[in-house]
Structure formats: structure tokens, C-alpha cells
Amino acid sequence: MELVLNEISKKFKDKLAVNNFSMTLTSGVYGLLGPNGSGKTTLMRMIADVMPETEGSIKVDGVDKRTMDGEYRALLGYLPQDIGFYKNWSADKFLLYVAALKGIDKKEAKRKIDDLLEFVNLTQDRKRKIGKYSGGMKQRLGIAQALLGDPKILILDEPTAGLDPNERIRFKNLLSSISKDKIILFSTHIASDIEFIANHILIMKEGQLIDHGSVQDVLGNAKGKVWHCKIDESQLFDFENKFKVANILREEDKVLLRIISNEKPMEDAQLQEPNLEDVFLHYFNEKSNI
Length: 290
Fold this sequence. Notes:
GO terms for molecular function: ATP binding; ATP hydrolysis activity. This protein is of the alpha/beta class. The protein has helices spanning 40-47, 65-68, 70-73, 91-101, 106-119, 135-147, 165-178, 215-220, 236-242, 276-284; strands at residues 3-12, 15-25, 28-33, 55-60, 63-64, 76-79, 153-157, 183-188, 200-205, 208-213, 226-232, 244-251, 254-260, 270-271.
């Protein structure tokens, strides 16, 4: 399957939220990385057919999604950033409702729901009112509804928000295991969520696609710009004001800094291998000399 985004834009009055975005997606995990307000959610809502694009087109195997209509939506699993729940419904009732909307046979839906509730660790709470759920439990239920119906295009907007470390690992492992025959678009502003599972990274800034490629391709853009520095406490304020500081660690009477800089920040600075968080800082955290 091939999902083609062809020069799509979205304008709200005077604001251009997504600007001329083009990309071809095939099976695999795509990490959509960018700060809040970069246009990630608007882009995903257009792909999820929740919001129409102002310009451009979205096609599956050469067919426009507007022509496909219900056939296109049948391919989708969507987890929005803020999912609405009926507070007095149980997880069972909610998932059966979503399954009915997706046209899934009731007997098959019940079997799938059992499996999904087990996966998201909500089996024991399946009859409990959703209004009594914690934020993390609601997020896990949102993940379950997105996976109902074995969607071929899975759109996940900040899916790991509210999950504890074990749940995040389980979820990321699941995405990797099911990605062979699915297009998975995973939006986040937390770089570590996608560094080890994404086949392809898309970086958005101010509504535009500013970089994309494999993880190694994207990391290459920060190569030679990540430094390890050991300074005195008295120097910390000056370094924080002059450079992008990715990490601060106090060690005895010294302070260890991880700095993103085009230039060597001090004589004794040592180059480090970049990670995706470094790339994020490289693009999005403004400082004087970068």
C-alpha cells in the first residue's frame, strides 16, 4: 500500500497551519517529530479524514481519498491527542460501540476486544466506568480503539502520553511487531519515543516538512555539533545563555554539559555521537550561534 500526501496545506483564516506538505508513505513506522504548534496534529487530522485539506490531495494507491469515501475510512485507525469518552460507559461498551461504527461483526469484535484489553492491561477494569479511569488508563483505552479492526493506516497523535515506562515499552514493541503490513504515523515531541522504532523520521517546523529520512540520515545532520564539556559551577550561567544545553550533570566540584553547537564551545570540549534529542534541539531550541 502507498499513501501519497501531495502538496497538502491547511489554512485557518490568516494562519497557515500546514504548508505544502508532500510525502509518500509505505509500510513501516514513521515518526513525526516537532514541537507543539508545528502543525503535526493538523496534518494527522487531515490524513485521518477528520478535517479537509485546503489545498492538495491525499491518495491511496493512486486513488483520492475523497473518491474512496467510506472505503478510505475503513483503512484507518486513529488516536487523537484528546479523545472524548462517555464517562458513564465502560471500556467494554465503548469498544463495542467503536467496533459497530467500523462495521466489525459483533462476535469477532468481542474476541478482538478481549485481546486488546489484555494488551493495554485493562481486562480487570473493563466493566468500570471510564469516568473513574486515570489519565493513563484513558490513553490505553484510546490505543485499544485505534487498533480495532486491524487498520492498514494507523495514525497516532502523542500515543505514549500518560503511559508509564513499562507501558511505553510494550506499546512501542507492538508497533514494531505489526508494522510489516501497515503504515504507522506516530506523532510526538518526545524524540526518544521514536528513535529506536521508526523506519523514517519526518521533522515539522511551522507547518512545513524541514527534514526527513532514516534515523541515521537525520542524526547525520547533528554530527559534529554535539559536545561534552566540563566546566566550573561559576561558568554555568554564561554557558546556558550562549549555547543550547541538552543536559546538565553535577559531578563533585564540576558541571558536565552536553551542548549542541556548530563551533567547539571550549578548548577541552569532546565531540559526542548525536541522538534524536540532540537533533530536536538543533532544529527547535533557539540560541545565539546555532
